[in-house]
Amino acid sequence: MFVIEYFFDSLKLKSILKSEEKSLFKLSIFFIILILISNFPASYEVVKNEGSRLDFIVESFDKGVPLDWELPTDLVIKGGKLVSNSEDVYLFIHDGINYIFNNKEKVDPKTNHNSLIFSENTIIYVDNEGNVLEGIGYEGFSKDEFRLNDINLATGEEKISLYKEFASSTEKSFKKDIILYTLVRNNIIQISVNIIYALILALLVQLFRFGYQNFLNFKDGLKFVMMCFGVPAILTFIVGLMSTPFAPVVFQLSSGMIVMLVLLTQGKKILA
What we know:
Elements: H1 2-10, H2 24-38, H3 40-48, H4 56-63, E1 76-78, E2 81-83, E3 90-94, E4 97-103, E5 115-119, E6 122-126, E7 132-136, E8 145-147, H5 149-153, H6 156-172, H7 175-205, H8 218-227, H9 230-242, H10 247-270
Parallel strand pairs: 4-5
Antiparallel strand pairs: 1-2, 1-8, 3-4, 5-6, 6-7
């Protein structure tokens, strides 16, 4: 597979300047894979920490709990389901968000903006623009069962604590979608940032044109720069396992140093 071939070629710093024969398309794929490898420790942290929080659910209950809610006494969340003996649908509003319990119909995002909808097997959140986030199986509710009536019966700090537990458990029920969204977002950002960084390095490489008769054009310079990312990707992967926040700094510093070092030590031998 060309990725393995390109990787071993990227380790040969003495000949890495001779990359003009390589396909730019294949190099682009190789480059993206290197970014994903270098960003793996950060991606692992995302999975371990269950993505980034939605915040708005927990935050709305941190600001204050609803004192006027009289929750259905028969609603129980257990075994990954919302269990009810009633066919009634209940609507409550808190901090501008509609909480709809015991929903029995297919959710229409167009008519349910800014709503959290609790159906038998799912919790669905619809934002102000009609975007949908779905949590399946009430995964955030870790207790054997969570009785909404316990909130009705509680008072004082216990009532506040149960409301906050409900908010936190609801938010955690979206963790699979949150993890996926966070992974995709973070990796797209890293790929985009490093594409810009590679282009800037390729432009800087052109400054070495003075003093050489047969220097790299911009396209070949970009190929060379991409090949220089092999060692930094592995180094960043190792550093990221020990210190995730420091990893991007290592990646950019080491890749820039390798580009300049190769040009200074091998430029006259290969390009003169």
